[in-house]
Amino acid sequence: MSTPGIKSRPAATPIDILPTDAARLYTHIHPALVLSLYALRFNAIVADPVPALLQTLIPLSTLQTAYVTICLPPTAGSGSSTPAVVPKTAKKRAGGAAKATSDSNTAKIVPALLSLILSLLAITPLTGITLILFGAPITTHFAHTFLAAAHIAILAFLPLVYVLGVDGERWREVVGLLLPVDEVVGGMVGTLVGAWAGAVPIPLDWDREWQKWPVTIVTGAYAGYALGKLAGGLVFKGRKIMFD
Length: 244
Description:
By secondary structure, this protein is mostly helical. Helix content is 65%, strand content 0%. The chain has helices at residues 21-47, 49-71, 88-91, 96-133, 142-156, 158-164, 168-175, 183-198, 215-234. Helix 2 (49-71) packs parallel to helix 5 (142-156) and helix 8 (183-198) runs antiparallel to helix 9 (215-234). It starts with 20 loop residues before the first helix and ends in a 10-residue tail after the last helix. This is Glycosylphosphatidylinositol anchor biosynthesis protein 11.
């Protein structure tokens, strides 16, 4: 029974992509682009992880920023998910339509850039500390660890920051895995599970160059992101993660 005078908050619903042709097309192309980027950079990452991972952050950030801008509603739907409606009288004025388009683009691009900055400056250190707690080298390889953390943060959390903003209650639901599954939540879960699974080959006595830290972690994160995003958006959308 609800308490009188206290308005209950509606339950979270799955995040839908924007109802545009560009969003419907790009949301399916995006995982292939992310995996292609990593495939192109894989040999360089194996050969010298630090500069290669640092250089790969730029195209990855571009792809993720493009994805959220084209496909997702910013800050829990605060941005318009449909093109702005311009009155007929305004359409007749010179520059009226151009201004509406500019305002709409600004409403998407600014949150996307802020989400990127927050992911790099706030979530990356937390992810790096988590990697250390899970067994990453604590006295060496700091650059390796935190560059891996930056890739994980941009893959898993940039889209979530874009759609949730700084809504503390929703972020508590993220931590508790209480949000319904969609392609954004699926991408996050896939990235984290993939990074965790990527640690499995490291201690195996295969003596392969690609087993060194943090190549397999980052590889698992990229693969997990693509699979989780597709599965969350196409197969498990609307379901809750259960721990029975």
